[in-house]
Design goal:
single chain, mainly beta, five-stranded antiparallel sheet, 2 helices
């Protein structure tokens, strides 16, 4: 995606409640502990925020976790095709000579149908056709390309694909190369990103003594955006105007670093601040609270609403709060939402192990997440979480995900009843202790919403459990300050 997209008024809508005159006469709002708000019965309609919900796996390599291979990025072109950057021997196809002897291994690019997950006609891309008609094979024996290191979409919808130390622009309609950039200093490079002025930014993973480059739209080298980063980084993000550049940090990561230049390509970028680190995070593994957890940012992507989505590397390396995606408002540096169930949740249930890229459908309502260690691409759908009470009844007793999540300090818990029932709603900490009993009463059939205020509680993971006529359902929520 070329820089930060224009903001849309699509997601994160506030709760709106409408009451008819009859409802006002018949129903009342009841306040209980923790600033509880219950909205019940009548013909009440509430439009809640939209949240990302796991749908299914688009593609699963069905290979065991191994640090030497994985998916290293995902992008969506204007036709909706899903492009994957493949690292290591995930594809597992040899390059052979005339005698059948193995010379090396292909490192292709996958292009998938978003509806079926099947390869499109020119996928996988193992041999690229250059503009002059010559061929460039993506394989381990190449002096300049090899494992995929990242993938994005440029301002025209074409694909910017990094293959070890080479950047390709690929026509999204044909799979043919439009431009190629090979630096003199050949080493593993990051994904490339483009701003709205056509400038392209790409750096090195091992960037202790290496720069971040600026290229023009024709892949000519303009110069250095940053002379030296000085830390390990896999990912970049740039705003649409090109003035603000963001890098991640992995292996002893320390957050997302924000750089600025008033004249990109003329004045070099300088560091402004570092953000995205978490504070007061509870670790259930050690039953302790971390004062600060540094963000190992393994991928950065703009969502359709201009939030910067940060993939925090696997939790067994980066500490509690890892194996998850966090969306930040770059102006306030606040978390807007999170996506994913942290490892060891299974990928088939929305589990995330090692985030390595996010991309969105053109209508902004489908999200694709690449996972390096699970070797999958998961599909998430944007779904409204509303509160509606009316003549129609819910088809079953349901407990919905709270919103917003994470929250500070209050959040709404929606649920639905098929028939009049006795309801008990409680909130628990990670040690199983009750921190609040929100409901313990008879309630009418329909859809309801409860406002839970966690003021006074420590930050961390909490669970809310709904008991209806002896049946139990529970969900997880995250309180962050």
């Amino acid at each position: 995606m070329p820089g930060m997209p224009p903001r849309r008024d699509l997601a994160l809508k506030p709760l709106v409640i409408q009451l008819s005159k009859e409802d006002v006469a018949m129903k009342k709002l009841v306040m209980v502990c923790f600033a509880l708000l219950i909205v019940a019965a009548g013909s009440l309609y509430g439009q809640g925020q939209e949240v990302w919900q796991f749908s299914h796996l688009l593609y699963d390599f069905q290979k065991p976790q191994d640090n030497s291979w994985g998916i290293h990025g995902v992008a969506v072109d204007p036709e909706g095709k899903v492009w994957l950057s493949i690292h290591g021997n995930l594809h597992e196809e040899p390059v052979t000579d005339a005698n059948g002897d193995t010379l090396g291994w292909y490192r292709p690019i996958y292009v998938l149908d978003p509806n079926t997950g099947e390869h499109v006609s020119f996928s996988p891309l193992k041999v690229l056709e250059l503009p002059d008609g010559s061929l460039d094979t993506l394989w381990t024996g190449s002096p300049h390309n090899g494992s995929g290191k990242g993938i994005s979409v440029d301002m025209d919808g074409n694909i910017l694909a990094t293959s070890w130390s080479t950047l390709y622009r690929i026509d999204y309609k044909t799979g043919k190369v439009l431009n190629r950039f090979i630096p003199d200093d050949k080493s593993s490079m990051t994904e490339a990103v483009q701003d709205g002025n056509g400038n392209i930014y790409i750096g090195y993973v091992l960037s202790k003594e290496r720069p971040v480059y600026i290229l023009d739209n024709d892949f000519n080298l303009i110069g250095n955006a940053i002379d030296t980063l000085g830390y390990i980084n896999r990912t970049l993000a740039v705003t649409f105007d090109g003035k603000d550049l963001y890098t991640g940090s992995t292996w002893n990561g320390f957050g997302v670093v924000h750089y600025h230049s008033d004249l990109p390509g003329i004045i070099k970028f300088t560091a402004v601040d570092t953000f995205a680190n978490l504070t007061n995070v509870y670790d259930p593994a050690t039953d302790s609270t971390w004062a600060e957890v540094k963000m190992w940012a393994s991928c950065l992507d703009w969502d359709p609403d201009s939030n910067l989505v940060v993939g925090k590397l696997r939790s067994d390396w980066s500490g509690p709060g890892g194996s998850m995606y966090y969306a930040f408002d770059v102006k306030t540096k606040e978390i807007v939402y999170t996506v994913g169930k942290p490892f060891p949740h299974d990928s088939s249930d929305g589990g995330v192990y090692s985030p390595r890229g996010a991309a969105w459908s053109n209508d902004g309502k489908t999200m694709y997440l690449a996972d390096y260690d699970y070797n999958v691409v998961s599909v998430w759908k944007l779904a409204p979480v509303g509160v509606k009470v009316g003549p129609e009844l819910p088809v079953a007793f349901e407990l919905y995900q709270n919103y917003p999540n994470p929250f500070n300090p209050s959040t709404t818990i929606p649920f639905a009843l098929k028939q009049d029932s006795h309801v008990v709603l409680r909130v628990y900490d990670v040690r199983g202790r009750v921190v609040a009993t929100l409901l313990d009463q008879r309630m009418v059939a329909g859809k309801h919403a409860v406002l839970f205020d966690a003021t006074g509680l420590p930050t961390g993971v909490y669970y809310y459990r709904l008991e209806v006529n002896g049946e139990l359902k529970a969900k997880q929520m995250l309180f962050l300050k």
